Amino acid sequence: MEKLKLGVLGSGKGSNFRAIQDAIEAGELNAEVRIVISDVESAGILDLARLRGLRAEFVPPGKFRTKMEPEAEQRVVALLKSENVDYVVLAGFMRMIKTPLLNAFPSRIINIHPSLLPNFPGIEAWKQALASGATVTGCTVHYVDSGMDTGEILAQREVPILPDDTAETLHSRIQVAEHTLYPEVIATLNANQRSVL
Ligand code: GAR
Questions:
Q1: Whole-prediction pTM value?
Q2: Which ligand 1 atom sits closest to the C-alpha of 175?
Q3: Atom of ligand 1 minimally distant from the CA of 174
Q4: Could you tell me which residues are beta bridge partners of residue 60?
Q5: 12 CB under 6 A from ligand 1?
Q6: For the segment 89-136, what is each residue's pLDDT rounded down to a tens digit?
Q7: Which CATH fold would you assign to the domain 4-191?
Q8: Fewer CB atoms near the end CB (10 Å): N or C, the chain?
């Protein structure tokens, strides 16, 4: 079967991207990261991609804080199209996705979020979970739509919240779960049809 062509977008250190690329290199995921794009020039995810010999591009996001300017998003679309990607994988990308990109890849953009959605959408979801007094949280892989972490859910994994957890220990435990869940879900995607998960 042909490899699934992925475009990865991230704003941070890129540990989820690394887990995906590790799964590919280990032969556990029949896919290929064609390009990694970041809205943050100094983001670790770009360094990681370059270290692995992959195409890495910084796209200046423009004047907004929570989304890209339409021109910037159009540039992202052009880059993804130039690599003919099948799916767009958000891996710690901290801006909302708007119409130029949503329309260019309908039902082809997925995200990982560090909570059991619909609980705790938005930023620093692990801190929200800790503050709520919940004893269980987790992570969710979902399709991206125009809302904030509202798209159709593909898969979730639970993670316990322990009595002595800090924000850091809890986020680390969630990330361990993310690093197995995300490659597993991507392995179920198909270039020609919607996932049946
Ligand atoms: C991950 O925990 C991911 O779930 C979260 O950012 C982190 C990125 O880590 N994403 C969001 O909060 C999106 N709303 P990474 O750069 O090491 O993959």
A1: 0.96
A2: 2
A3: 2
A4: none
A5: yes
A6: 999 999 999 999 999 999 999 999 999 999 999 999 999 999 999 999
A7: Rossmann fold (3.40.50)
A8: N
